[in-house]
Specification:
The protein has helices spanning 27-38, 56-70, 87-94, 120-123, 125-131, 152-163, 183-187, 199-209, 215-224, 229-236, 240-252, 259-270, 275-296, 303-322, 326-343; strands at 45-49, 100-103, 140-145, 169-175, 190-193. It is an alpha/beta fold and 346 residues long. The chain folds into two domains: 6-193, Rossmann fold (3-Layer(aba) Sandwich); 238-343. Helix 6 links the parallel strand 3 and strand 4 (169-175). The longest helix is centred in the last third of the chain and has 22 residues, at 275-296.
Length: 346
């Protein structure tokens, strides 16, 4: 089954969220959104947060379809679903509904990859969009995917849109790291936090999406996906699962590092086009999941690990941007993990 690469969209999704009508998990957040919308008290700004691939875009499109079909009324079902054959849903799926605007990083024509930031020119489209007259009392809905990608100029332009929202309009901001957004943006939005899915929910979805994959591989995906269907499917692509397993082993061996295995891994990744970049993504994801799990258990002494996490992010970004020797990056990452393991337990 063909799927998009990680870089194909700012928010990793298991499916194209425009075309995804089923929502796995997130019952609490859905109930909160349903009460607000169906009671006629929908906020004009919503900040939908959660880890990458957890379903933020799917959730936002579900809200958008409902508002465009039924408005902020109780005429639709409590779960905010809209039938696939509904004319409004069909327009949203086709990307042709005049009441919906989706803002994402553009594609760099030279590289074919997404731009590094969501610029001010994209965000300024909000002003013209919200300034349009909505037909037949309809709504205008805008989705920013993701707000984390905005540069300072774009963030200030977004703030202006939030300060003067028109009636029957909703702006939904998707964010992997809401704490990094401007406080003034956060204060003008109602927060909806999407939590990682349970292992059982991920397993159920993967069984339906990847029925031909061996159960043992699906079990590994459940373990390392961090409760994210999007991440699990990305890992299942090509050699993603193997790279993710390599990342897990590098952390598992931290207390007693295997230098030979780390050297072999570095050599292997140096021969793969984007191997180091993808491995860095998986390594950061694996370490993030362990830190989160330990924090939920009330674990102390995680400061060293969170500091390491930031250092690893910068290291892999610098390697890709400056075309540095990937082998040195992997060896340095292994040493840094081992050094941290000697000072703190995870």
């Amino acid at each position: 089954m063909a799927r998009k690469k990680v870089e194909a969209a700012p928010e990793i999704e298991a499916h194209d969220p425009r075309k995804t009508f089923a929502l796995a998990g997130h019952k609490t957040a859905l109930a909160t959104a349903s009460r607000a919308i169906r009671s006629g008290r929908a906020p004009q700004g919503w900040l939908i947060s959660g880890p990458p691939g957890v379903g933020k875009a799917t959730f936002a499109f579900r809200i958008a379809r409902y508002l465009l079909a039924f408005g902020a009324t109780d005429r639709g079902p409590e779960d905010l679903s809209v039938p696939e054959n509904d004319p409004t849903a069909a327009q949203v799926t086709a990307g042709g509904h005049p009441g919906l605007l989706v803002l994402q990083r553009g594609i760099n024509p030279n590289t074919g990859k997404p731009m590094t930031v969501l610029g001010v020119d994209e965000i300024r489209k909000l002003h013209g969009f919200f300034g349009m007259t909505s037909g037949a009392g309809g709504w205008r809905v805008a989705i920013v995917d993701t707000a984390d990608d905005m540069n300072p100029q774009a963030a200030n332009a977004l703030l202006k849109a939030l300060e003067e929202p028109p009636p029957r309009a909703m702006l939904m901001l998707l964010s992997n790291a809401p704490g990094q957004l401007l406080p003034t943006i956060r204060s003008r939005c109602q927060r909806l936090d999407l939590r990682p899915l349970s292992d059982a929910e991920v397993e159920r979805e993967l069984a339906a999406l990847l029925p031909d994959m061996p159960a043992s591989n699906r079990a590994m995906l459940v373990k390392i996906s961090g409760g994210s269907i999007g991440v699990a499917l990305t890992l299942a692509e090509d050699d993603g699962l193997a790279l993710a397993q390599d990342a897990e082993r590098l952390i598992d061996r931290a207390a007693s590092p295997d230098i030979g295995a780390t050297l072999a891994l570095a050599d292997k990744l140096s021969r793969v086009g984007d191997g180091t970049d993808r491995f860095g993504t998986f390594l950061v994801e694996a370490l993030t999941n362990r830190i989160h799990a330990r924090a939920l258990e009330g674990g102390a002494g995680l400061d060293r690990w969170t500091d390491l996490l930031e250092k690893l992010k910068r290291s892999f970004l610098r390697t890709g941007a400056l075309h540095l020797d990937p082998r040195q990056t992997i060896l340095s990452a292994g040493k840094a993990i081992a050094d941290t393991a000697r000072r703190a337990r995870l």
